Amino acid sequence: MKSTSTSLTKLALRKFRKNFWGVFSFSFLLVCVLIAIFAYAIAPDDSQNANQMHLSIHSKQPGFSVDVLTIPSNVEQQSSLTTFFFGKKNVDTEVPINSYEVTASGISIAEYTSDGTSGLLKDYPLDLFTKATSAEDIPSAYISEKKFLLGTDKYGRDLLSRMLIGIRISLAIGFVAVFISLVIGITLGAIAGYFGGKIDTAIMWLINVTWSIPTLLLVIAITLALGKGFWQVFIAVGLTMWVEVARVVRGQVMSVKQMQYVTAARALGYTDFRIILKHILPNALAPVIIISAANFAGAILIESGLSFLGIGAQPPMPSWGGIIKDHYSYIILGKPFLAVIPGIAIMSLVTAFMLIGNALRDALDVKT
């Protein structure tokens, strides 16, 4: 029995490898996961939530570059591990500049202006720059050119950094929501399908009631009940996606429990819990795996919709839906990239999960 199971697994993997779009999508998702893990390490703006604002350079086109004066902060440094996962809580101040002049007591700069006029003049004393021994050392140590590959948002924040860190929200909502939906859906579906009778009737009543409520409306209601926030959205989405899993598991369990090996397990005196866990569920989870991929994509879309409505991830936490919300009006103002870039990112991630789901469906189909 074990060798047969192993051979079926190998056969499914072999079929999956032959599906180009499935393998391509899986590779794309692996890259996305790595980006999410190392987001702050590779993001140009490694401040917490990539929230370093430069209002003088807001809404700039991709590829925009400007000279920046960095004024070091005097606060205690964070640990490298905390910075790696959560970014720098206290960061150096960055001032975009048009020009500068070294003075006897420090440096004088003209702040950046987009119209080419001379900006506001400011003087900074030498004692602010700890690494400079003289005023002449300030330009080489603290002035550098900063390039924004995807441009800046309406607050002058680096859009690339916001996009890289925002991928954490999309992947996290998918993992947490799918996990919650699997735990609830498999549990209720297995109990309803195995025991039947009044238990099945009660669970099916709960499933039908939940199914009849529009998903987005139910998510909004749960979110408002739990409060706005990061984890509240995760829980709300997870609590609305278990219905389809429960229905499929119930149907699979009702079919599998009629098999002879289940009857033999009952005759041997095994408990219902062991029969369900060891004998029925392993042979009924193939459709659930496919549904999970679709639910992952659905969770990403729901979170993006909630963030667009303002009840998802709250500012300044970067979310792809939130970025679209902040900039959708820019589509008709000549700067559509501010909303199009996160829109393409959402579309790409959702499409990848749907293609993986299709590939898994073909690989796990016993008729092919």
List the helices and strands and how they pair.
Layout (H helix, E strand, L loop, with lengths): L1 H17 L1 H18 L1 H4 L21 E8 L8 H7 L6 E10 L3 E6 L9 E5 L12 H5 E6 L10 H37 L1 H16 L2 H12 L3 H9 L3 H15 L3 H8 L4 H9 L5 H24 L10 H8 L9 H27 L5
Antiparallel strand pairs: 1-2, 1-5, 2-3, 3-4
Helix pairs in contact: 1-15, 2-6, 2-15, 6-7, 6-9, 6-10, 6-13, 7-10, 8-9, 9-13, 10-13, 11-12, 13-14, 13-15, 14-15
Label this structure with key terms.
368 residues, alpha+beta, elongated, MetI-like fold, five-stranded antiparallel β-sheet, disordered N terminus, 2 domains
At a glance:
With 368 residues, the protein is of the alpha+beta class.
Q: What would you say this structure looks like, in words?
A:
It is a single chain. By secondary structure, the chain is α+β, with helices and mostly antiparallel strands. The protein folds into two domains: 2-34 and 160-363, MetI-like fold; 53-156, no CATH class. The chain has 15 helices and five strands. Strand 2 (93-102) and strand 3 form a beta hairpin. The chain is elongated.
Helix content: 55-70%
> Tell me about the biggest sheet?
5 strands, antiparallel
Order of helices and strands: HHHEHEEEHEHHHHHHHHHH
Q: What does the oligomeric state look like here? A: single chain
